[in-house]
Amino acid sequence: MPRSPVPLAETSPPDGTTLHTLLRRYDIPGEPLSCEPLAQGLLNRGYRLATTRGRYFLKHHLDGDRAAIARQHRVTLRLDALGLPVAPPVADTDGRTVTVIDGRCWALHPWIDGQHRDGGELTRIQSARLGALLGLVHTCLEEVIDPRTPAPRAPHAPDEAGADPAHTFALIDRLLALARARRGHDAFDELAVHRLVERRELLERHAHRRPAAAAVPATGWVHGDFHPLNLLYRDAEPAAIVDWDRLGVQPRAEEAVRAAAIFFVRPGGTLELAKVRAYARAYRRTTGAGPAELAAAAHRVWWERLNDFWMLRWRYQLGDRRADHQFPAAAALAVWWTREYDAVREAFAN
């Protein structure tokens, strides 16, 4: 589950004084013309900053971990030197890429013209190129990060890959009680109740398939959040991989499976398996990962999905509805994936 969201009251846009201070620190000529908020992410905030001399992407890092942000920036600069499509940060007059003003952390990036494309907009050939791109990200991260660098688990990585069904059953009961008791009960609440009851039944039937704790997968440095909103396309080609906030160490094959389950999910909660197969083959070819590694990763991510209720936890436990729109397809996918388990596993492994 992603970390708890930052209250919206703490994420106000930068005022004129902040913008002028930023431009002076970065020695950017001209004056700010506008600073428009982009579609709100769940963890950070981004703005399209227009000046009399050009456009930039201004990012407000809400967690304020300057060391982690600077590490992300160093990595993207090295990836850029290798030719990967990234948008490395702009350095200020002191050579720093993180600017702190009144306790808030900012980073400035060049503006990249492009659009987001989900798997439904990609051809099978483009799906294969996507798998190869993620494979290249994984192999290049291994090249640019010093092996002596401490290797923590990727921040906010999912914790459900080995989840205990007993804990999940208890969570389901809590969420059911909250959904049923919510004042102004609506269609979303009805769907949530239906899916929670359905998921409990699925877990009761498949509890014996929990991934073995002893089966520790191979790990490596990963982007950590590879999905359509973090990849910009210019026409048919990727223009920039953005948002490296979750850079860290995870099972790399799990990131490949998790990304495919986001890119290639249809609105009704099924996967475009022909595209998944093309994507997975290209990923395996680029990284050298074997079919067994992808098959095992698909099993762990499937189990993760069966035990994953972060969207409902945000709604019912935190009062935050920003992820509500993702729930219908995500909940349906867990059910469909269980029914089509063998076909999904084959798509990733063959």
Give the key terms.
Aminoglycoside 3'-phosphotransferase, Chain: A, domain 2; globular; 2 domains; 9 strands; two-stranded antiparallel sheet; 350 residues; alpha+beta; five-stranded antiparallel sheet; 14% strand; 11 helices; Phosphorylase Kinase, domain 1
What is this entry, summarized?
The protein has helices at residues 16-25, 66-81, 124-144, 165-181, 187-206, 252-263, 273-287, 291-306, 310-317, 327-339, 341-349, and strands at residues 32-37, 45-51, 54-61, 99-101, 104-110, 219-222, 231-234, 237-241, 248-251. By secondary structure, it is an alpha+beta fold.
Description:
The strands form three sheets. The protein has a five-stranded antiparallel sheet with strand order 1-2-3-5-4, with helices on one face. A two-stranded antiparallel ribbon has the order 6-9. It folds into two domains: 8-110, Phosphorylase Kinase, domain 1, CATH 3.30.200; 119-145 and 155-160 and 207-349, Aminoglycoside phosphotransferase (APH), C-terminal lobe (Aminoglycoside 3'-phosphotransferase, Chain: A, domain 2), CATH 3.90.1200. The chain is 45% helix and 14% strand. The longest helix is centred in the middle third of the chain and has 21 residues, at 124-144. It has helices at 16-25, 66-81, 124-144, 165-181, 187-206, 252-263, 273-287, 291-306, 310-317, 327-339, 341-349, and strands at residues 32-37, 45-51, 54-61, 99-101, 104-110, 219-222, 231-234, 237-241, 248-251. α5 (187-206) packs parallel to α10 and α7 (273-287) packs parallel to α11. With 350 residues, the protein is of the alpha+beta class. β7 and β8 form a beta hairpin. The two termini are 29 Å apart. The protein contains eleven helices and nine strands.
